[in-house]
Description:
The chain is mainly beta and 391 residues long. It has a single domain (3-389), classed as Methylamine Dehydrogenase, Chain H, CATH 2.130.10.10. The chain is 2% helix and 39% strand. The protein contains one helix and 32 strands. It has one helix at residues 3-11, and strands spanning 48-54, 59-65, 72-77, 86-91, 97-102, 107-113, 119-121, 126-127, 132-137, 143-148, 153-159, 166-168, 174-175, 183-185, 191-196, 202-209, 212-215, 221-222, 230-232, 238-243, 258-264, 271-273, 289-292, 298-302, 310-315, 322-324, 338-341, 348-352, 357-363, 370-372, 378-379, 387-389. The longest helix is centred in the N-terminal third of the chain and has 9 residues, at 3-11. It is globular, with a radius of gyration of 19 Å. It starts with a helix and ends with a strand.
Amino acid sequence: xxxxxxxxxxxxxxxxxxRILAAVVVVLAGLSLSCGxxxxxxxxxxxxxxxxxxPANGSVLLLHIDGSxxxxxxxxxxxxxxxxxxTGLALLPSRKFLYAANSRADTISIFNVANDGTLTLSGTxxxxxxxxxxxxxxPSGKYLLVTNNFxxxxxxxxxxxxxxxxxxxxxxxxxxxxxxxxxxxxxxGKFVYVTNPxxxxxxxAFSFSNGxxxxxxxxxxxxxxxxxxxxxxxxxxxxxxxxxxxxxxPPFASTTGNISGFNIDPDSGALTPIxxxxxxxxxxxxxxxxxxxPSGRFVYAVTPGSSSSIWCFTITSTNGQLVAVTNSPFSLxxxxxxxxxxxxxxxxxxxxxxxxxxEGYTYNPSTGAPSAILGSPxxxxxxxxxxxxxx
Length: 391
């Protein structure tokens, strides 16, 4: 099923989430995690919250994360609202307001965040484009960006820091080529990248200034079939894109899917392929979600199922090329919905539609081999959509 067909099915009430429909990329600062032969240091993190959308329920669920063990417990759920299908989430750095993109209702809900993390809907959801999918807030906390899959654009809103209210900026929405889905803004806030899964799979690149998106030279650029999940290294030199449907030449012909790597021009944001790209695993199928270790040394890709499901690569610092670590891919239960690292750097979370929940792992500091957190998987009752962590 194509992304567009899958998304349209979701808008008419289908509750299953196809492999290509959901992935999220989260790059968090201040972590220390490594795999392969690199060094590793972790700290005992504090307890904190996370939020996950439940598209089939029309609600957002509060999660509590134990900073010592990584275990997840379920908190309060917002009242279900029919015919909304919330997907994308974005949390203001102040942790005062949370935004949910309602893909079926073509709206954005604004929630007030209480001191205990519980959510209260603020006013009436505001209009978005057609099929809002993914959401992100720029590093300054001034702007919310939302991809609109069916209207082929990105909406940009300024955020009132006191009330959380949204005001669409002049010129918004900005054209983003066919069916924009996932979105990433670089740590500096200078550049924005959006995936376009249809056809051959593309990436649309923008410069970003004062709320205005401007396509960069050479955009869009070819990535690979089903181009979806995005990740950037901490130095902002390299962008990686998961291509879940791409075929590979020998000796990797038995593996479906790969990861495209691009150099980021530091002045314009333009993308050029890294030599040797795309990169893939010896075995496995369908990587959708990516995350980069905050040290900028490692890329993780996750796939559905439990066979060869977690891929781990080192990033060659000189040119951005990816090299698989020893024992990668790891045959453990993963998922296709999201992949992210806990702010303490100790825990790695993966969203799964098949298991209706979240897989949680720790990693061996020398080999990178994952070990399940006690109590994993953590059930959300119905397949989760996208997730954000409160640091």
